[in-house]
Design brief:
The complex is a heterodimer of chains A (215) and B (102). Chain A is an all-alpha fold and 215 residues long. Helix content of chain A is 77%, strand content 0%. The radius of gyration of chain B is 19 Å and the shape is elongated. The chains are: A mainly alpha (215), B mainly alpha (102).
Chain lengths: 215, 102
């Protein structure tokens, strides 16, 4: 897990610096935001010519992922606002996945922080290496770094896409974005892709209704 | 990244978790359909970001070497390859094709 977060941290820093951010700013941004997906979404919209606000909106929509992770984690932790808040703000896919499989609240909390420690180690050392690397790479397109960006995102949501409804929502969201991209301002296609969720819910219900029909 | 964006995205990433844990979570527990819909949002919007990054450049559709890199990445993700393998393979495929065609 530490290795995954290490590579993610390196990738993000190299891309941020390639995008024109200074080393200090790139490091600071990733340090406080601590959300590669939101930062990727922000950069994507900026690169597409979108305004700062459009890019921020896209980052917000993408960050719902974390809110949802916190929803599944919080009730399994020991009682207490501060304990739950401290864990909730550090909710990521891998640590929540490990934690929610534990039986008692205390075990949930212990395994959560154990996984989180590994992630932190990987993330912050990745940020440091990426910041140094970003300054010496030069022309990043030559190294195919622009492809790393979407590939990293795909790997992050891989497990979600393996479920039937997740897969339909993903494909629908992707198609919505593809159709709208050439016609509306950058940022909007990403925000409007949430309607892929509605398509997935309808699509998943259809076969169930046919099965449940006694006639 | 602008300072405004750093502040706003920090609020997004930290704030939405707190809202999820303490406000939305208990409320969603009684509404399973909404909870499922919420769980699907990341799949749809992150995929939209992926599409934009793969087949567009400065607001218009562009098919280039990135698409081949992403096709390889998709197969690797499906085969549950480690994160580092997925991103490095995508970069190598894209860079190699560029070197060949460019």
């Amino acid at each position: 897990m530490a290795i995954t977060f290490f590579s993610l941290g390196v990738t993000l820093q190299v891309l941020l610096i390639d995008n024109g951010a200074s080393s200090t700013r790139a490091f600071l941004a990733s340090f406080v935001i601590f959300s590669a997906t939101s930062q990727f979404a922000y950069l994507a919209v900026r690169e597409g010519g979108g305004s700062d606000w459009a890019a921020i909106a896209a980052g917000w929509v993408v960050a719902t992922r974390f809110g949802i992770l916190a929803v599944s984690l919080a009730p399994k932790l020991p009682e207490g606002f501060w304990r739950r808040a401290a864990a909730a703000v550090n909710a990521f896919d891998p640590n929540v996945a490990v934690a929610v499989q534990q039986e008692t609240p205390r075990q949930v909390e212990r395994e959560f922080w154990r996984t989180t420690a590994g992630m932190f180690l990987g993330w912050f050392s990745g940020l440091a290496v990426g910041t140094l690397l970003g300054n010496v790479l030069g022309d990043t397109q030559r190294f195919g770094l622009d492809a790393i960006f979407p590939a990293a995102l795909l790997a992050i949501i891989g497990n979600l896409l393996r479920q039937r409804d997740g897969c339909i929502a993903g494909i629908a969201g992707g198609i919505i974005c593809l159709i709208l991209l050439p016609f509306i301002p950058a940022g909007l296609p990403i925000i409007l892709s949430v309607f892929g969720v509605a398509i997935a819910l309808v699509a998943v219900r259809l076969p169930l209704q046919i099965q449940g029909d006694p006639s | 990244m602008t300072t405004l964006s750093i502040v706003m995205l920090t609020i997004a990433a930290w704030g939405q978790r707190l809202v999820g844990a303490f406000l939305i979570g208990p409320w969603l527990e009684k509404r399973p359909t909404l909870a499922r819909a919420a769980g699907l949002i990341p799949a749809a919007v992150v995929m939209a970001v992926i599409v934009q990054l793969t087949v567009s450049s400065a607001g218009s559709l562009v098919i280039d070497e990135r698409l081949a890199g992403m096709a390889v990445a998709a197969v690797l993700v499906w085969r549950r390859a480690p994160f580092i393998v997925v991103v490095v393979a995508a970069a190598i495929v894209t860079a190699s094709l560029r070197a060949l065609t460019g």
